[in-house]
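Q: What changes when iron/sulfur cluster is included in the input?
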Amino acid sequence: MADRLENIRKFQTDVEQCMKCGFCGYFCPIYREERQEKGLARGKDQLIRFALVGEQPLSKGFYQAIDNCLLCRTCVAYCPAKTRIDHAVIAARGDYAAERGLPLAKRAVFRYLLPNRRLFGAALRLASWLQGFLPRGEGSFRHLPQFLSALGAGRTIPDIAPRFLRSILAESCPAAGGPRRRVGFFSGCATDYLFPELGRMIVDVLRNLDCEVVFDRRQGCCGAPVYLSGDFRTARKMAARNIDAFEGCDCVVTGCATCGSGLREYPTYLAETPEEKQRFERFAAKVKDFSALVVDLLAADLGRLAVKPSVRGKTVTWHDPCHLARYQDVRAQPRRILQALEGLRFVEMPDADRCCGLGGSFSITHYEVSRKIADHKVDAIAACGADAVVTACPGCMIQLRDALARRNAAVAVLHIGELFTIRPAAEPLGLR
Ligand code: SF4
Ligand code: SF4
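A: The predicted holo structure follows.
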Protein backbone atom coordinates (compact mmCIF):
# COMPACT_ATOMS: atom_id res chain seq x y z
CA MET A 1 0.00 0.00 0.00
CA ALA A 2 1.28 3.46 -0.91
CA ASP A 3 2.52 5.57 1.99
CA ARG A 4 0.03 8.46 2.35
CA LEU A 5 2.73 10.66 3.91
CA GLU A 6 5.55 9.68 1.59
CA ASN A 7 6.62 13.28 0.90
CA ILE A 8 6.74 14.33 4.54
CA ARG A 9 8.70 11.20 5.37
CA LYS A 10 11.34 12.15 2.78
CA PHE A 11 12.06 15.24 4.86
CA GLN A 12 11.42 13.70 8.27
CA THR A 13 14.89 14.52 9.58
CA ASP A 14 14.28 18.19 8.74
CA VAL A 15 10.98 18.09 10.63
CA GLU A 16 12.62 16.53 13.67
CA GLN A 17 15.25 19.26 14.03
CA CYS A 18 12.94 21.75 15.75
CA MET A 19 13.69 22.10 19.47
CA LYS A 20 10.70 24.40 20.12
CA CYS A 21 12.78 27.39 21.22
CA GLY A 22 10.42 29.86 19.53
CA PHE A 23 13.30 31.98 18.17
CA CYS A 24 11.59 32.01 14.75
CA GLY A 25 8.82 34.11 16.31
CA TYR A 26 11.10 37.16 16.19
CA PHE A 27 11.47 36.87 12.43
CA CYS A 28 8.46 35.17 10.82
CA PRO A 29 6.60 37.94 8.93
CA ILE A 30 3.24 36.20 9.37
CA TYR A 31 3.68 35.57 13.09
CA ARG A 32 4.73 39.18 13.59
CA GLU A 33 1.33 40.26 12.21
CA GLU A 34 -0.97 37.54 13.54
CA ARG A 35 0.70 36.30 16.73
CA GLN A 36 -0.72 32.82 16.23
CA GLU A 37 1.34 29.72 16.98
CA LYS A 38 0.12 27.94 13.85
CA GLY A 39 1.60 30.75 11.71
CA LEU A 40 5.03 30.11 13.19
CA ALA A 41 7.54 27.51 11.93
CA ARG A 42 7.36 25.82 15.37
CA GLY A 43 3.56 25.49 15.14
CA LYS A 44 3.64 24.12 11.61
CA ASP A 45 6.41 21.73 12.53
CA GLN A 46 4.36 20.44 15.47
CA LEU A 47 1.28 19.86 13.29
CA ILE A 48 3.36 17.96 10.75
CA ARG A 49 4.83 15.79 13.53
CA PHE A 50 1.30 15.02 14.78
CA ALA A 51 0.33 14.02 11.23
CA LEU A 52 3.28 11.62 11.12
CA VAL A 53 2.11 9.72 14.18
CA GLY A 54 -1.65 9.99 13.50
CA GLU A 55 -3.90 7.72 11.51
CA GLN A 56 -6.55 10.30 10.60
CA PRO A 57 -6.81 11.82 7.12
CA LEU A 58 -5.17 15.25 6.89
CA SER A 59 -7.75 17.83 7.91
CA LYS A 60 -8.77 21.14 6.38
CA GLY A 61 -7.33 22.87 9.45
CA PHE A 62 -4.00 21.17 8.74
CA TYR A 63 -4.11 22.49 5.17
CA GLN A 64 -4.94 26.02 6.33
CA ALA A 65 -1.91 26.00 8.63
CA ILE A 66 0.57 24.75 6.04
CA ASP A 67 -0.95 27.05 3.41
CA ASN A 68 -0.34 30.01 5.72
CA CYS A 69 3.37 30.28 4.92
CA LEU A 70 5.23 32.60 2.55
CA LEU A 71 8.07 30.09 2.16
CA CYS A 72 10.30 33.12 2.66
CA ARG A 73 12.92 31.04 4.55
CA THR A 74 13.44 33.82 7.10
CA CYS A 75 12.95 31.31 9.92
CA VAL A 76 15.33 28.89 8.20
CA ALA A 77 18.04 31.57 8.10
CA TYR A 78 17.80 32.22 11.84
CA CYS A 79 16.82 28.82 13.25
CA PRO A 80 19.60 27.63 15.62
CA ALA A 81 18.59 23.99 14.95
CA LYS A 82 18.60 24.45 11.14
CA THR A 83 14.99 23.29 10.87
CA ARG A 84 13.95 23.27 7.21
CA ILE A 85 10.32 24.23 7.58
CA ASP A 86 10.20 25.07 3.87
CA HIS A 87 10.94 21.42 3.01
CA ALA A 88 8.41 20.18 5.54
CA VAL A 89 5.64 22.56 4.45
CA ILE A 90 6.06 21.84 0.73
CA ALA A 91 6.16 18.08 1.36
CA ALA A 92 3.06 18.34 3.54
CA ARG A 93 1.27 20.25 0.80
CA GLY A 94 2.19 17.43 -1.57
CA ASP A 95 0.74 14.77 0.72
CA TYR A 96 -2.39 16.82 1.36
CA ALA A 97 -2.92 17.38 -2.39
CA ALA A 98 -2.51 13.64 -3.04
CA GLU A 99 -4.92 12.68 -0.25
CA ARG A 100 -7.58 15.40 -0.40
CA GLY A 101 -7.01 17.12 -3.76
CA LEU A 102 -6.19 20.78 -4.39
CA PRO A 103 -8.86 23.50 -4.37
CA LEU A 104 -10.72 23.51 -7.70
CA ALA A 105 -9.40 26.89 -8.91
CA LYS A 106 -5.77 25.92 -8.29
CA ARG A 107 -6.29 22.53 -9.94
CA ALA A 108 -7.76 24.10 -13.07
CA VAL A 109 -4.99 26.69 -13.37
CA PHE A 110 -2.15 24.24 -12.68
CA ARG A 111 -3.32 21.32 -14.82
CA TYR A 112 -4.94 23.04 -17.79
CA LEU A 113 -3.85 26.67 -18.03
CA LEU A 114 -0.23 26.97 -16.91
CA PRO A 115 1.10 24.08 -19.02
CA ASN A 116 -0.61 25.37 -22.17
CA ARG A 117 0.97 28.68 -23.16
CA ARG A 118 -1.56 29.52 -25.86
CA LEU A 119 -4.53 28.83 -23.60
CA PHE A 120 -2.91 30.63 -20.68
CA GLY A 121 -2.23 33.70 -22.83
CA ALA A 122 -5.83 33.70 -24.10
CA ALA A 123 -7.17 33.31 -20.54
CA LEU A 124 -5.05 36.25 -19.38
CA ARG A 125 -6.37 38.38 -22.25
CA LEU A 126 -9.92 37.48 -21.33
CA ALA A 127 -9.24 38.22 -17.64
CA SER A 128 -7.70 41.56 -18.58
CA TRP A 129 -10.76 42.41 -20.69
CA LEU A 130 -13.13 41.42 -17.89
CA GLN A 131 -11.04 43.38 -15.40
CA GLY A 132 -12.11 46.53 -17.22
CA PHE A 133 -15.70 45.92 -16.08
CA LEU A 134 -14.84 45.40 -12.42
CA PRO A 135 -15.63 48.33 -10.14
CA ARG A 136 -12.69 49.26 -7.94
CA GLY A 137 -12.81 49.76 -4.22
CA GLU A 138 -12.22 48.04 -0.92
CA GLY A 139 -14.34 45.03 -0.16
CA SER A 140 -16.56 45.24 -3.21
CA PHE A 141 -16.11 41.60 -4.24
CA ARG A 142 -16.84 39.60 -1.16
CA HIS A 143 -18.93 37.14 -3.18
CA LEU A 144 -15.96 36.09 -5.31
CA PRO A 145 -14.16 32.89 -4.40
CA GLN A 146 -11.26 33.42 -2.02
CA PHE A 147 -8.82 32.75 -4.87
CA LEU A 148 -9.94 35.97 -6.56
CA SER A 149 -10.80 38.04 -3.54
CA ALA A 150 -7.70 40.25 -3.83
CA LEU A 151 -9.04 41.53 -7.16
CA GLY A 152 -11.97 43.02 -5.32
CA ALA A 153 -9.92 44.56 -2.53
CA GLY A 154 -8.71 47.48 -4.61
CA ARG A 155 -5.45 45.81 -5.53
CA THR A 156 -3.23 47.40 -8.18
CA ILE A 157 -2.86 44.76 -10.86
CA PRO A 158 -0.53 45.24 -13.84
CA ASP A 159 -1.97 45.34 -17.34
CA ILE A 160 -1.52 42.36 -19.61
CA ALA A 161 0.99 43.34 -22.32
CA PRO A 162 -0.48 43.99 -25.78
CA ARG A 163 2.11 41.59 -27.23
CA PHE A 164 3.70 38.78 -25.26
CA LEU A 165 7.47 38.34 -25.20
CA ARG A 166 7.19 35.01 -27.04
CA SER A 167 5.61 36.78 -29.99
CA ILE A 168 8.26 39.51 -30.28
CA LEU A 169 11.57 37.87 -29.39
CA ALA A 170 13.42 35.61 -31.84
CA GLU A 171 14.27 32.09 -30.70
CA SER A 172 17.94 32.74 -31.33
CA CYS A 173 19.43 36.20 -30.69
CA PRO A 174 23.03 36.52 -31.91
CA ALA A 175 25.80 37.90 -29.72
CA ALA A 176 26.90 41.46 -30.50
CA GLY A 177 30.54 40.34 -30.64
CA GLY A 178 32.09 36.89 -31.07
CA PRO A 179 29.92 34.57 -28.93
CA ARG A 180 31.56 33.63 -25.63
CA ARG A 181 28.63 31.61 -24.35
CA ARG A 182 25.36 30.11 -25.45
CA VAL A 183 22.89 31.34 -22.86
CA GLY A 184 19.29 30.17 -22.55
CA PHE A 185 16.90 32.91 -21.46
CA PHE A 186 14.13 31.71 -19.18
CA SER A 187 11.56 34.50 -19.10
CA GLY A 188 8.98 33.16 -16.64
CA CYS A 189 5.27 33.97 -16.91
CA ALA A 190 5.35 37.53 -15.55
CA THR A 191 8.06 38.73 -17.93
CA ASP A 192 6.43 36.95 -20.85
CA TYR A 193 2.88 38.22 -20.33
CA LEU A 194 3.23 41.40 -18.27
CA PHE A 195 6.72 42.85 -18.76
CA PRO A 196 7.95 41.82 -22.24
CA GLU A 197 10.02 45.03 -22.56
CA LEU A 198 12.02 43.92 -19.53
CA GLY A 199 12.71 40.60 -21.27
CA ARG A 200 13.98 42.47 -24.32
CA MET A 201 16.26 44.67 -22.19
CA ILE A 202 17.76 41.65 -20.42
CA VAL A 203 18.43 39.92 -23.73
CA ASP A 204 20.07 43.10 -25.11
CA VAL A 205 22.42 43.27 -22.12
CA LEU A 206 23.37 39.61 -22.56
CA ARG A 207 23.98 40.02 -26.30
CA ASN A 208 26.24 43.00 -25.58
CA LEU A 209 28.17 40.77 -23.19
CA ASP A 210 28.87 38.51 -26.18
CA CYS A 211 26.29 35.88 -25.36
CA GLU A 212 24.24 34.15 -28.00
CA VAL A 213 20.80 34.10 -26.38
CA VAL A 214 18.45 31.17 -26.93
CA PHE A 215 14.78 31.84 -26.22
CA ASP A 216 13.32 28.42 -26.93
CA ARG A 217 9.53 28.65 -27.06
CA ARG A 218 9.05 25.19 -25.59
CA GLN A 219 9.79 26.79 -22.22
CA GLY A 220 6.75 27.38 -20.05
CA CYS A 221 6.00 28.17 -16.43
CA CYS A 222 8.92 27.18 -14.18
CA GLY A 223 6.47 25.00 -12.24
CA ALA A 224 7.24 26.58 -8.85
CA PRO A 225 3.67 27.78 -8.16
CA VAL A 226 2.52 24.26 -8.99
CA TYR A 227 4.87 22.17 -6.87
CA LEU A 228 4.97 24.69 -4.02
CA SER A 229 1.22 24.08 -3.81
CA GLY A 230 1.80 20.34 -3.70
CA ASP A 231 1.00 19.26 -7.27
CA PHE A 232 4.29 17.46 -7.91
CA ARG A 233 2.93 15.33 -10.77
CA THR A 234 2.00 18.31 -12.98
CA ALA A 235 5.19 20.18 -12.06
CA ARG A 236 7.31 17.16 -13.06
CA LYS A 237 5.96 17.38 -16.62
CA MET A 238 6.64 21.13 -16.71
CA ALA A 239 10.19 20.56 -15.49
CA ALA A 240 10.85 17.99 -18.20
CA ARG A 241 9.72 20.42 -20.90
CA ASN A 242 11.87 23.26 -19.59
CA ILE A 243 14.93 21.03 -19.37
CA ASP A 244 14.43 19.87 -22.98
CA ALA A 245 14.10 23.49 -24.10
CA PHE A 246 17.57 24.41 -22.82
CA GLU A 247 19.51 21.30 -23.75
CA GLY A 248 22.76 22.50 -25.31
CA CYS A 249 22.95 25.86 -23.51
CA ASP A 250 25.99 26.65 -21.34
CA CYS A 251 23.76 28.27 -18.75
CA VAL A 252 20.14 29.29 -18.25
CA VAL A 253 19.63 32.84 -17.08
CA THR A 254 16.50 34.41 -15.68
CA GLY A 255 15.53 37.84 -14.43
CA CYS A 256 12.92 36.35 -12.12
CA ALA A 257 14.19 35.35 -8.68
CA THR A 258 11.24 33.05 -8.06
CA CYS A 259 11.69 31.24 -11.38
CA GLY A 260 15.44 30.97 -10.72
CA SER A 261 14.95 29.28 -7.38
CA GLY A 262 12.02 27.29 -8.77
CA LEU A 263 14.21 25.80 -11.52
CA ARG A 264 17.06 25.15 -9.09
CA GLU A 265 14.82 23.24 -6.70
CA TYR A 266 13.67 20.61 -9.25
CA PRO A 267 15.99 17.93 -7.79
CA THR A 268 14.74 18.58 -4.24
CA TYR A 269 11.04 18.02 -4.84
CA LEU A 270 10.43 16.49 -8.26
CA ALA A 271 12.95 13.72 -8.89
CA GLU A 272 11.47 10.21 -8.59
CA THR A 273 14.43 8.12 -9.71
CA PRO A 274 18.22 8.50 -9.30
CA GLU A 275 18.53 9.13 -13.07
CA GLU A 276 15.91 11.85 -12.92
CA LYS A 277 17.64 13.41 -9.92
CA GLN A 278 20.93 13.52 -11.81
CA ARG A 279 19.24 15.12 -14.82
CA PHE A 280 17.52 17.71 -12.63
CA GLU A 281 20.77 18.43 -10.79
CA ARG A 282 22.69 18.97 -14.03
CA PHE A 283 20.02 21.43 -15.15
CA ALA A 284 19.79 23.20 -11.78
CA ALA A 285 23.55 23.76 -11.77
CA LYS A 286 23.22 25.73 -15.03
CA VAL A 287 20.59 28.16 -13.73
CA LYS A 288 21.89 31.62 -12.97
CA ASP A 289 20.35 34.90 -11.90
CA PHE A 290 20.70 37.77 -14.38
CA SER A 291 22.62 40.14 -12.07
CA ALA A 292 24.95 37.34 -10.95
CA LEU A 293 25.75 36.47 -14.57
CA VAL A 294 26.37 40.12 -15.50
CA VAL A 295 28.85 40.51 -12.63
CA ASP A 296 30.56 37.22 -13.57
CA LEU A 297 30.91 38.16 -17.21
CA LEU A 298 32.17 41.66 -16.54
CA ALA A 299 34.60 40.44 -13.89
CA ALA A 300 36.64 43.51 -12.92
CA ASP A 301 35.25 45.61 -15.75
CA LEU A 302 32.08 46.98 -14.14
CA GLY A 303 32.96 50.34 -15.73
CA ARG A 304 31.27 49.00 -18.86
CA LEU A 305 27.91 49.42 -17.15
CA ALA A 306 26.24 52.60 -18.44
CA VAL A 307 23.25 54.03 -16.60
CA LYS A 308 20.20 54.71 -18.77
CA PRO A 309 19.16 58.38 -19.13
CA SER A 310 15.69 57.55 -17.74
CA VAL A 311 17.18 56.85 -14.29
CA ARG A 312 20.19 59.14 -14.28
CA GLY A 313 20.31 61.35 -11.17
CA LYS A 314 17.93 59.15 -9.19
CA THR A 315 18.43 57.84 -5.67
CA VAL A 316 17.71 54.12 -5.66
CA THR A 317 17.47 51.43 -3.03
CA TRP A 318 17.52 47.63 -3.34
CA HIS A 319 14.89 45.13 -2.21
CA ASP A 320 16.29 41.60 -1.78
CA PRO A 321 13.73 39.08 -3.03
CA CYS A 322 13.57 36.08 -0.66
CA HIS A 323 14.08 33.80 -3.65
CA LEU A 324 17.29 35.59 -4.55
CA ALA A 325 18.91 36.33 -1.18
CA ARG A 326 17.92 33.30 0.88
CA TYR A 327 17.37 30.74 -1.88
CA GLN A 328 20.25 31.60 -4.21
CA ASP A 329 22.59 33.56 -1.96
CA VAL A 330 22.68 36.44 -4.45
CA ARG A 331 22.99 39.63 -2.42
CA ALA A 332 26.31 41.23 -3.31
CA GLN A 333 26.04 41.17 -7.11
CA PRO A 334 23.04 43.50 -7.60
CA ARG A 335 24.56 45.91 -5.07
CA ARG A 336 27.84 45.88 -6.96
CA ILE A 337 25.96 46.81 -10.12
CA LEU A 338 24.03 49.62 -8.43
CA GLN A 339 27.19 51.00 -6.83
CA ALA A 340 29.06 50.88 -10.13
CA LEU A 341 26.45 52.87 -12.07
CA GLU A 342 27.75 56.42 -12.42
CA GLY A 343 24.97 58.99 -12.16
CA LEU A 344 22.92 56.91 -9.75
CA ARG A 345 22.96 57.22 -5.96
CA PHE A 346 22.51 53.92 -4.13
CA VAL A 347 21.22 53.88 -0.56
CA GLU A 348 20.42 50.83 1.59
CA MET A 349 16.97 50.62 3.12
CA PRO A 350 16.56 49.11 6.60
CA ASP A 351 15.90 45.35 6.51
CA ALA A 352 16.34 45.16 2.75
CA ASP A 353 15.90 41.37 2.82
CA ARG A 354 12.64 41.45 4.78
CA CYS A 355 9.94 39.62 2.80
CA CYS A 356 7.57 41.91 0.87
CA GLY A 357 4.61 39.65 1.67
CA LEU A 358 3.97 38.34 -1.83
CA GLY A 359 4.70 34.62 -1.40
CA GLY A 360 3.19 33.75 -4.82
CA SER A 361 -0.49 32.91 -4.46
CA PHE A 362 -0.25 33.74 -0.71
CA SER A 363 -0.86 37.39 -1.61
CA ILE A 364 -4.07 36.37 -3.39
CA THR A 365 -5.42 33.93 -0.82
CA HIS A 366 -4.19 35.89 2.24
CA TYR A 367 -4.33 39.45 0.94
CA GLU A 368 -5.05 41.12 4.30
CA VAL A 369 -1.91 39.87 6.02
CA SER A 370 0.13 40.13 2.82
CA ARG A 371 -0.78 43.84 2.71
CA LYS A 372 0.27 44.40 6.31
CA ILE A 373 3.63 42.77 5.65
CA ALA A 374 4.12 44.91 2.53
CA ASP A 375 3.42 48.06 4.57
CA HIS A 376 6.65 47.51 6.54
CA LYS A 377 8.55 47.44 3.26
CA VAL A 378 6.95 50.75 2.24
CA ASP A 379 8.04 52.24 5.59
CA ALA A 380 11.61 51.06 4.96
CA ILE A 381 11.65 52.54 1.46
CA ALA A 382 10.32 55.84 2.79
CA ALA A 383 12.94 55.84 5.57
CA CYS A 384 15.85 55.77 3.12
CA GLY A 385 14.44 58.53 0.90
CA ALA A 386 14.82 56.69 -2.42
CA ASP A 387 13.08 57.81 -5.64
CA ALA A 388 13.01 54.24 -6.85
CA VAL A 389 13.19 50.75 -5.40
CA VAL A 390 15.04 48.25 -7.55
CA THR A 391 14.65 44.49 -7.37
CA ALA A 392 15.01 41.31 -9.41
CA CYS A 393 11.65 39.61 -9.22
CA PRO A 394 8.59 40.62 -11.26
CA GLY A 395 6.42 39.18 -8.47
CA CYS A 396 8.00 41.49 -5.88
CA MET A 397 7.56 44.37 -8.34
CA ILE A 398 3.81 43.73 -8.53
CA GLN A 399 3.56 43.54 -4.74
CA LEU A 400 5.66 46.68 -4.16
CA ARG A 401 3.73 48.69 -6.75
CA ASP A 402 0.47 47.74 -5.07
CA ALA A 403 1.78 48.58 -1.58
CA LEU A 404 3.27 51.93 -2.68
CA ALA A 405 0.12 52.88 -4.61
CA ARG A 406 -2.04 52.25 -1.54
CA ARG A 407 0.07 54.80 0.33
CA ASN A 408 0.21 57.21 -2.61
CA ALA A 409 4.01 57.06 -2.42
CA ALA A 410 5.74 58.57 -5.48
CA VAL A 411 8.42 55.88 -5.64
CA ALA A 412 9.12 53.99 -8.86
CA VAL A 413 9.55 50.21 -8.80
CA LEU A 414 12.14 48.99 -11.28
CA HIS A 415 13.84 45.77 -12.26
CA ILE A 416 17.63 45.92 -12.24
CA GLY A 417 17.62 44.93 -15.93
CA GLU A 418 15.91 48.24 -16.77
CA LEU A 419 18.69 50.44 -15.40
CA PHE A 420 21.69 49.98 -17.62
CA THR A 421 23.20 49.13 -20.96
CA ILE A 422 26.65 47.72 -21.73
CA ARG A 423 29.35 49.86 -23.30
CA PRO A 424 31.46 48.25 -26.02
CA ALA A 425 34.57 46.63 -24.53
CA ALA A 426 37.06 48.56 -26.63
CA GLU A 427 35.53 52.00 -26.14
CA PRO A 428 38.17 54.36 -24.74
CA LEU A 429 37.35 55.64 -21.24
CA GLY A 430 37.57 59.28 -22.38
CA LEU A 431 34.61 58.80 -24.75
CA ARG A 432 32.23 57.50 -22.11
S1 SF4 B 1 11.87 26.20 13.95
FE1 SF4 B 1 13.91 26.63 14.76
S2 SF4 B 1 13.74 28.68 15.68
FE2 SF4 B 1 11.63 27.89 15.42
S3 SF4 B 1 11.14 26.88 17.37
FE3 SF4 B 1 11.97 25.29 16.02
S4 SF4 B 1 14.16 25.25 16.51
FE4 SF4 B 1 13.39 27.16 17.33
S1 SF4 C 1 9.04 30.37 5.80
FE1 SF4 C 1 8.59 32.53 6.31
S2 SF4 C 1 6.36 32.63 6.54
FE2 SF4 C 1 6.91 30.43 6.58
S3 SF4 C 1 7.13 29.97 8.77
FE3 SF4 C 1 9.18 30.55 8.03
S4 SF4 C 1 9.39 32.76 8.41
FE4 SF4 C 1 7.18 32.21 8.59
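Observations recorded in class: Residues 137-150, 428-432 have pLDDT under 50 and may be disordered.
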